[in-house]
Amino acid sequence: MSSPSWAYGEALRFFGGKGMINDALMRIVGDLERHDIEYALVGALALNQHGFHRLTVDIDLLMTPEGLQKFTSELVGLGYRPAFVGAKKKFRTTTENIPVDIITSGEYPGDGLPKPVSFPQPASSSVSMDGIQTIRLETLVELKLASGMTAGDRLKDLGDVQELIKLKGLDASFAEKLNPFVREKYLELLAGVELAKKRGIER
Question: What's the predicted TM-score (pTM) here?
């Protein structure tokens, strides 16, 4: 099941909206909704929801601390299990063994240290996309900027923002939707995208 040909086929199924990850995601969404647990899809799957297709092997969800507690008490043991002994926010589906990582409102992106940008309440920062509560574009960009700015091992988050800038045609006016803490970095990345585009045209 882990052969290169199987992995290639699974990747094709993933980008076609099918496969193990998507099947697990839809089941989780249904479980959360039936148990009235607020959530928002974040991470690489949120990028995919916003049109930036990137392969991933896990499901990242934003919940309130109360939502996490409810998930643990009502759903763990019924399709989900802790990823390891003592795990409080990392789980796996029991059917596909897919990682499910939960981030709670109030946590800080990147280095985890206090900063002007934190993970928000899922209900007020998400929008329904294909029946899945997904983190809003401006919030996704803001969190990724704060993450890449403060954690040296999260530079890919800045690359994700540049890809979103190119894909969505974002411009300088989008900076006004972002926390001042990350605006300068956004404009720096935007300038890089515009410069690369200009060089491409000149060639």
Answer: 0.89
